[in-house]
């Protein structure tokens, strides 16, 4: 017996007074989480009834969550068909007895939904959604690198797979298609399709920082995605050093020619 004079049997008999039910949680005894004092005339609060979230049928097949959204929609439609539409019952409820039945159905709905989300079918769809998200992240970083290469004029070629993923090849588009080279029939090329969205919502082709001309005017060969380093480009490296060396040789020749002319004039004067 406790200091308050209550026995263990009293404790068990009063358990219902302390039970708490919250959305998304299993019912629990509040006495296990906090020190409470409940009077004998205490009446537990009823769970607040909330409408069930409706999973609409997804229409964007390119969305990362398309598969999981579609499964949620189809499962919910089947559950409502077998057990009744919960939201309609919540809307038309009138008596306490109706609310009790609705609470029981809400509990069943949550348990069934949880079991479905733990099923192999839903887990496979979740794995596919995560893989799509990872691929989207990889494509985002690749696009940024290729944009920088276009601005710096260091992109020499792009793979057909990358061109399709980046939207440089669009079916039934007169411009963004694969072109055949007239001079070299074995080679093909595409035009970049890279734009930036302004704060006004207007979309403009990305421009070169030097001459402000749209980089989409320049064609790119189809092959492997290749970005050259500045040292191997026409603007630097050995070619740049070689041009400087040529100028210095020319200056030396001019200097020698002047010296020889000066020497000849001196001899004639003598």
Structure commentary:
By secondary structure, the chain is an alpha+beta fold. Among the domains are: 1-32, no CATH class; 153-232, no CATH class. It has 8 helices and 9 strands. Strand 4 and strand 5 form a beta hairpin. The protein is elongated and about 135 Å long. It has a 5-stranded mixed β-sheet with strand order 4-5-8-3-9. A two-stranded antiparallel sheet has the order 1-2.
Strand content: 5-15%
Q: How many beta-strand elements?
A: 9
Major sheet: size, sense and barrel closure? 5 strands, mixed
Shape: elongated
Order of helices and strands: HHEEHHHHEHEEEEEEH
Which stretches of 5+ consecutive residues score pLDDT under 50? 207-216, 232-247
The helix content is 40-55%
**What is the number of helices?**
8
Trace the largest sheet across and list its strands.
4-5-8-3-9
Oligomer: single chain
- Return the average pLDDT rounded to an integer: 77
The radius of gyration computed from the alpha-carbon positions, rounded to a whole number of angstroms, is 38 Å
* Class by SSE composition: alpha+beta
Distance between the termini: 138 Å
């Amino acid at each position: 017996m406790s200091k308050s004079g209550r026995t263990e049997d009293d404790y068990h008999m009063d358990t219902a007074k302390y039970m708490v039910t919250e959305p998304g949680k299993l019912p629990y005894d509040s006495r296990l989480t906090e020190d409470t004092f409940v009077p004998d005339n205490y009446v537990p609060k009823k769970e607040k009834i909330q409408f069930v979230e409706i999973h609409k049928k997804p229409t964007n097949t390119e969305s990362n969550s398309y598969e999981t959204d579609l499964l949620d929609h189809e499962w919910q439609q089947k559950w409502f068909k077998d057990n009744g539409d919960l939201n309609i019952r919540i809307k038309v409820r009138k008596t306490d007895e109706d609310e009790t039945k609705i609470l029981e159905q809400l509990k069943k709905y949550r348990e069934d939904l949880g079991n479905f989300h733990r099923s192999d079918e839903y887990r496979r769809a979740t794995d596919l959604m995560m893989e799509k998200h990872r691929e989207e992240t990889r494509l985002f970083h690749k696009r940024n690198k290729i944009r920088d290469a276009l601005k710096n004029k260091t992109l020499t070629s792009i793979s057909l797979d990358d061109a399709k993923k980046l939207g440089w090849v669009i079916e039934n588009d007169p411009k963004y298609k694969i072109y055949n080279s007239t001079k070299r029939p074995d080679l093909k090329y595409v035009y970049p399709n890279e734009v930036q969205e302004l704060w006004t919502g207007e979309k403009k082709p990305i421009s070169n920082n030097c001459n402000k001309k749209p980089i989409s005017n320049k064609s790119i060969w189809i092959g492997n995605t290749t970005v050259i380093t500045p040292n191997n480009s026409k603007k630097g490296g050995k070619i740049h050093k070689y041009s400087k060396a040529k100028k210095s040789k020319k200056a030396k020749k001019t200097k020698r020619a002047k010296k020889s002319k000066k020497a000849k004039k001196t001899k004639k004067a003598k």
